[in-house]
Design goal:
The protein is an alpha+beta fold. It is built from 15 helices and twelve strands. Helix content is about 35%, strand content about 20%. Strand 3 and strand 4 form a beta hairpin.
């Protein structure tokens, strides 16, 4: 099988970090990754039709000399070309694994099976992922989260077993943000990070580079202070870091006469909420001014939620600014859709690589492949993928349909290469037509 001609230029992000033979091996494996029903390395090799020994493809991840981070930065450059402000979303996800000899495996909380009162753990890899959030060019208002950098999280038991220094998930996210910030600064881009309360808590906000804007979420009883007073001439002693304490978000919502706003976020139903705003500084991040938006849902069980943004100058003074902060935070949701799609349709949790380098490279390669497929559909393919699965208010194609479109285009290229003779038998043509139908229905 051959991959679609229009998709090949996107694979050049790998070519810059690899030798030509290594890149050819990767191209063959990507073809198998697109078509394989099961995404083990051997399953990819079989789907690609390669005649080389499967050990050569295992060496691509286990011993070949190339950097997955530099490939991710190349993907970032391609995606963010022409952007002045790049929105980022970060979160972690669990990829289940089997076997005790696979590097980095451990027991981790499964967010899909757990609740606030009940925790379910599973054996596998926990990946901390940083994505670029883009708006669809085909469907305005729809957003995608495209992974660019990944880090494998080792819990304390796994870090001790594999003789590694234990690092928190927030430390891994801060490392990726710092790395991407250093890379983006060279091209004059401005970064804006969107994260949940785990990655935007005040203690973490205090460590994020000041030039990176942040929109996040905090608890309702968070302590907020005014800016510290200016020092008087001749004043001695240590300067104050915080001013007088301000009302907490829960106290902000106790004021009568707060405005009510109707919001439609995450593409769901409209919700009516009470909104309170104030500008201050968190106790654990006294150096960064934030705009806090407290929201009380008037129906349903979501209760009180508190969000904030560090862009206080643009958000100061108007009632609609609170809605803009909430809308911007909702752009973080596509990262959850990304995690579902890479597991369901690209099988990033299926390869069972055991060695250190292979474990650190294989899953991130699948995440980057997801980014390239979405970018290919949004910017290169002339026609959008057919929407085979229809429901009311559906906008645009799903990732399954994008993948089916790439398979169909790849099959057409293979047909032109190997079955382009004018005297093709009717039986072979029927098989090809049926195969196209099955690839389309695979969505």
């Amino acid at each position: 099988m051959d991959v679609a001609t229009s998709f090949l230029p996107l694979l050049q992000v790998f070519a810059g970090e690899m030798t030509q033979p290594t890149f050819q091996t990767l191209s063959t494996l990507v073809t198998g990754w697109i078509f394989a029903p099961r995404r083990t390395v051997l399953g990819m090799v079989r789907a690609s039709g390669a005649e080389r020994h499967h050990a050569a493809f295992h060496r691509l991840f286990a011993t070949a000399r190339w950097s997955i981070d530099r490939v991710g930065l190349a993907v970032f450059d391609r995606i963010s070309a022409g952007m002045q402000t790049v929105f980022l979303a970060g979160d972690d996800t669990l990829l289940s694994r089997c076997g005790l000899k696979i590097f980095g495996t451990g027991m981790h909380r499964d967010p899909l099976l757990s609740s606030r009162s009940h925790t379910v753990t599973r054996w596998g890899h926990c990946w901390v992922v940083l994505c670029v959030v883009i708006e669809s060019r085909r469907v305005p208002g729809k957003h995608f989260a495209l992974p660019v950098l990944c880090r494998l999280y080792l819990n304390k038991a796994a870090a001790q077993k594999w003789n590694r220094v234990y690092r928190k998930k927030t430390e891994l996210m801060l490392e990726m943000l710092t790395k991407l910030h250093s890379h983006a600064t060279e091209s004059g881009k401005r970064l804006h990070f969107l994260g949940d309360s785990a990655y935007t808590a005040p203690a973490v906000l205090n460590q994020i580079p000041p030039s990176i804007a942040v929109t996040g979420r905090v608890v309702a009883n968070i302590r907020i202070h005014e800016a510290p007073p200016l020092r008087r001439q001749g004043q001695v002693g240590r300067p104050r870091k915080r001013g007088p304490q301000l009302p907490t978000p829960a106290e902000m919502l106790q004021v009568h006469g707060l405005p009510q706003v109707t919001l439609t976020l995450y593409g769901g139903a409209a919700e009516t909420v009470r909104v309170a705003e104030q500008i201050g500084r968190f106790y654990k991040a006294p150096d960064r001014e934030v705009k806090v938006v407290a929201v009380e849902h008037l129906q349903g069980g979501r209760g009180v939620e508190v969000f904030y943004t560090t862009e206080t100058e643009a958000a100061c003074g108007a009632e609609t600014d609170a809605e803009a902060v909430l809308t911007r935070y909702s752009w973080r949701w596509p990262i959850e859709v990304t995690f579902h799609d890479v597991k369901q349709h690209l099988g990033v949790d299926q390869p069972q690589n055991r060695t250190t380098l292979a474990a650190r490279r294989t899953a991130p390669t699948g995440f980057l492949l997801y980014s390239l497929i979405v970018w290919w559909h949004e910017t290169i393919r002339h026609q959008p993928a057919r929407t085979l699965r229809y429901w009311p208010n559906k906008h645009g194609a799903s990732f399954a349909e994008m993948l089916a479109a790439l398979r169909t285009d790849s099959l057409e290229k293979t047909q032109e290469t190997y079955f382009s003779t004018p005297h093709l038998s009717l039986g072979v043509q029927k098989i090809l037509d049926q195969l196209k139908t099955l690839l389309t229905l695979a969505a």
